[in-house]
Amino acid sequence: MPPRNATDPVLDNSSPYFVHPGDGPSSVVVTPLLTGSNYQSWARSMKRALGAKMKLEFVDGSLP
């Protein structure tokens, strides 16, 4: 496997494909956690959090 360089989108922190080492499947992105009764406020908070991390495009389908 060839070594990755700085132009690799996975290593470029301005790329939407960059994943910070602190981000992972068990990360709590927003609180409180989703329940059936708090969907509207949870969705708003989640969109804000994903937008701040430049990851909203993965969820809304706009990533090319």
From TrEMBL:
GO terms for molecular function: kinase activity. It comes from Trifolium pratense (Red clover). It comes from the Eukaryota. Keywords: Kinase, Receptor, Transferase. It holds the Pfam family Retrotran_gag_3. Residues 20-63 form the Retrotransposon Copia-like N-terminal domain. This is Receptor-like serine/threonine kinase. InterPro entries: Copia-like_N.
